[in-house]
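Long-time lurker. I teach an intro course on protein structure, and each term I like to show students one example going from raw sequence to a predicted 3D structure in token notation. This year I'd like something fresh instead of my usual example. Would anyone be willing to generate the tokens for the chain below so I can use it in lecture? Attribution to the forum is fine with me.
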Amino acid sequence: MADIPNKKPTSYDVAKLAGVHRSAVSRAFSDGKSISDETRRKVVEAAQSIGYRVNYLARGLHAQNSGLVGIVASRLETSHRARQVKLISGELVKSGFTPILLTADGVEDLRGHMSGLLNFNVSGMIITSDTPPPDIIEECSHLSVPVVLINRAPSVAGADRVQLDIKAAGRMAFQMLHEAGATRFGVLEPKAQTYSVVGRAREFAQNCKSEGFDVTIIKTEEQSYKDGLAASDDIQSALDSFDGIFCTTDLMAFGVLDGLRIRHDVSVPEQVRILGFDDADQAEWSGYNLSTISQNIEDSGKVAVELMMKRLADPSRILETRTIALTSVHRGTTHQRPKF
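-- Reply from a regular --
Happy to contribute to a lecture. Here you go:
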């Protein structure tokens, strides 16, 4: 006779083994439900003995608050974004939620992911990829699903926000390079329109101009290491025009540094000063020792979860925007090491 495959245990099996009504099983595994300690003990022991596990996803489809929270992110290949998502996930778990991570490579991906998350009756969404279309934000608001945007364009209403001050970012980048002695500036600006990266590139250029300095916009396709490597060729070919380059992301700065030093034998910071943005883990590695600007992603993760929970408690509260703190990080790509 063929072996009969094992059947996945159900709440009915637990109830039968524990000698209780099926509803007692549900109460035993639900916080705040009325049930005696003795009944809970019998249910838990019965569940453990047959390997029963609660299907929280199925329960969430029927509950008002499922405890599931969608995180929609892009560019997870970058250490900065990966760390940001890890921190947000940790904050959600500490607050009693279960994160669901989805990656999006464009607005249509984002729309589809957010629409799909609504089918799972999520408690909220935290978005770090593109800016969501207004209609999907409106649908989330109508369904009382809080949406928190991190570093997204302020053009779409209906969501709480955590974002850096791009004006302050551009001003800080100019000041760091100028105080290090730069007077001939360049800035890497991706062609792909992203609110925070392109925004801080343009604010940097505006600060250079308002202070009476020329600035060259070095266009890149995206904001990757490969784009920084390609930009190093443009920088080297017009090296007399530059003594300070703002790379707008650390990943591009790493590419620029490798290209200048290895391909073109350019000394940094002696011939040109290089500044990144994000303070990725690799920035402090000895091989890069990159001067950069740090945005406090630890606080941004905490604040994003806090704003979502406040919206859950009071859906009618006024929309809130919190600003991420920026810190200048001076390392070896803008300042020469003293000689002894």
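Some talking points for your students: The first strand starts at residue 68 and ends at 73. The CA atoms of residues 62 and 306 lie 25 Å apart.
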